[in-house]
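Sequence in, structure out. Go.
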Amino acid sequence: GRRFRSRMKRGIRHFPRLWRASRLARRWYYARAGAYPDWRSLIEPEAELWQSARAGAQGGPRVLMATAIGSYAHAATLESVLSAALTFRGAEVHALLCDGSMTACAECDASLYPDLSRFAEHGPSQDLCRNCFSPAESVYRQLGITVHKFSEWLGPDDRADARRIANTTPANEIQAYTLDGLVIGEHAYAGTLRFFATGALDDEPMAEPILRRYFESALRVAFATRRLLKSIQFSSAVYRHGIYVPWGIVGEVARQEGVHVSTWNVAYRKRRFIFSHNDTYHHTLMSEPRESWEDVELSPQQDQELMHYLSSRREGLFDWIVFHRAKKDDPKELPSLLGLDPSKPVVGLLTNVAWDAQLHYPANAFDSMLDWLVQTIRYFDKRRDLQLLIRVHPAEISGFPPSRQPILGELKKVIPNLPSNIIVVPPESELSTYALMSMCNSVIIYGTKTGVELTSRGIPVIVAGEAWIRNKGLTCDASSPEEYFRILDGLPYASRLDAGMMARARRYAYHFFFNRMIPLPFIEPHAGNSIYRLKLNSLRHLLPGESAGLDTICNGILRGTPF
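Output:
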């Protein structure tokens, strides 16, 4: 017993170091166990083909793959594939990687640092930075791609200026800070929220020093990227996500320097990706023109294909991002399980994860999701003729990183006791979100993507935030609290969406799930931290005409054609 207690004490004392070490060990393992593509083995049998392509691409339009964070194996995988494919199409591709120059980045999160003061003081330099650069650099080196390091484009004055600005700017001014027209503070603030996995920083004792660390990092990225883009003429830049530090800052600089931007993210469906022009998909999916889908009639086969896929979403059979697999999905059983009053209409409400993609959206009716939720509950407290069914997003506990600001805990601080006509389904519940919402007269959402699916099934949707279904003419969109409550005053609705509206909703859903999500057949889903691997037998599969999805992506990057 004494020996056991001694070992336990020793383990607890060294837990922070061991936890970070396990992250480093996993990264070392990924770099050597196939998470990163082995381009050397693909090039050797077809060396003449590849060398000819490289020679022909010299002097072609320059494309910058701003991978930045080398430990993101899935990003290095896709972007190295695009590098090879673009080389075959005559582009001269370069890569941009951080070599320990950022003082904080999207690879960092609070769960890695039980002692947050350690991160506030040192950032990731003593642990996460060690093995971040080399795996991705090796991938690009095998392809013969020129790799630029942040440190090469940061002078001593840049580092000093970044530190000075980060230390002297009042904390309450950081979020709105701009540098020569570049939106710096918003991405630093969003990155800090992501680090803490929370929707607000008020209750985080270490919030200010860590915010300043992200702010300094954002400034360093801006200085380095600007010097690079002023020194080398790039026509396009490609990078993941389009927000946070570093990618949001790279995008700000690229747009200011007249470089065309292409952002990407993993789509819901397996082997598919979403690409956007000149902005993050969080913005472009709300602002894209309706002409791209509104007048495209679905064939019976396409409609059937869509509905089959939407049904599969309950189990995530064809998706590689699944937050929840329900065990109870019979709408006939749910009312009694929840204690719903069958004599009163039910209005559904779907939350989203509080910290996710916290950017500025001018059309939001409320300052935050929590503000929206609190005001909505207070409204329904006065509407005892209705029942409000709140489904908390399962990704609060199953997403990465898991939320450190559970919405129910935040709600209880403001409204300790919920009105009797408001029922809450917590994130860990086994009840199906789809079955729950199918019982509702209508559904209110803030930022969830589920609105695309609900409208396709004829369920009326009210949007108060930045959901992608906004601006499609399919939902009731509120841009102010007054407009929002006027919409709620019209509840309950007399009927579901009519046949014409539902047909339009399905046209958009098909556009969203089948056209905007671009397939790449040689990307193979993989269980574990790196959600996919490259499965390619020959470089020839990357040639023009071999993959319609790859052609679409490359043409978009080089010519600006629609993704």
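Check: The chain is about 45% helix and 15% strand. Residues 7-16 have pLDDT under 50 and may be disordered.
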